[in-house]
Amino acid sequence: MTQLMTVIADQATYWDRYAANTPERTPQEALEGAFGWTQYPGHGPGNEVLGDPATALELGCGHGDAVAALALNGVEATGIDLSAAHVTSARATWGHLPGAHFHQADAVDYLTSASRRWEAIYSIWGAAWFTDPDRLLPAVHDRLTSGGRLVFSHAPAIPGSYGRQGTYGAGYAGPQVWIYRWAYEPGAWVELLRRYGFRHVRARVEPAPEPDHVGTLLVEAARP
Ligand SMILES: C[S@@+](CC[C@H](N)C(=O)[O-])C[C@H]1O[C@@H](n2cnc3c(N)ncnc32)[C@H](O)[C@@H]1O
User: Fold this and answer.
1) Region 114-127: what's the mean pLDDT?
2) What residues does ligand 1 touch, defined as CB less than 6 Å away?
3) pTM
4) Could you give the CA distance from residue 117 to residue 111 in angstroms, rounded to a whole number?
5) Distance of CA 154 to CAs 93, 123, 142, 177, 181, Å?
6) CATH number of 33-222: 3.30.365.10, 3.40.50.150, 1.10.540.10, 3.40.980.10?
7) What is the SS3 assignment for 75?
8) CA dihedral over 198, 201, 187, 210, signed as positive or negative
9) Whole-number Cα distances in Å, 86 to 66, 89, 158, 187
10) Which stretch of 1-5, 14-18, 103-107, 183-187 has the lowest confidence by average pLDDT?
């Protein structure tokens, strides 16, 4: 209840409030279909899109369910998230798994201060949506192993509405907090990723289970 009363004063508290409003689930419920890229449970590709990495980093891991799913499959998996509430929840539920690690950090700050590399870096409706790709993509490229994969998903662009999209995180009568997302058509993502040195780039919109419902942008790329 205290968290529901949190005043949104910056982006981290915006996400803390979001975390507090997520429905509670048992770990077993959380793991069912935990590794999906779309907003439709059980729909679309799963973790095979990552290849077969020994190490993986999730940017904006939320409650950490996808990290846990990878760790249970033998991957050394790390999740980072801007929200302390999300990281606390992830550690409380999944911290006992030897291969699951969680840290509170901004995605670009974490990547640029890291001294190691990962075989897969991914984001499921996470930090890759909320971070300027001109800052994020070079930072990810630098921290991937050779052959390592970047995969991310989020909502497709609304036709005609591209680049940085802003909204007031605390509403129109609250503190002035801006939340930005970035939106591009698949072809523009391919160009951007190639410009930052990625290869084997594939970007597409996965169709929704129902015709004419909102699909999912899914982008895959590799560091040569
Ligand atoms: C829509 S939620 C998705 C969470 C999770 N990936 C899932 O699928 O349930 C977006 C997540 O991205 C995190 N996030 C947003 N901007 C971030 C940033 N710059 N660095 C790290 N995490 C960020 C938020 O805190 C939030 O947990």
Assistant:
1) 98
2) 15, 59-62, 80-83, 86, 106-107, 124-127, 130-131
3) 0.96
4) 9
5) 25, 9, 23, 22, 10
6) 3.40.50.150
7) coil
8) negative
9) 13, 5, 28, 33
10) 1-5
